[in-house]
Amino acid sequence: MNRIATAATALTAAALLSACVFAPPVTSTTDSASITRMSEQAVATCGAGNVKEVNAKSFTCK
Question: What is the pLDDT of the chain when averaged over all its residues?
Answer without folding.
Answer: 80
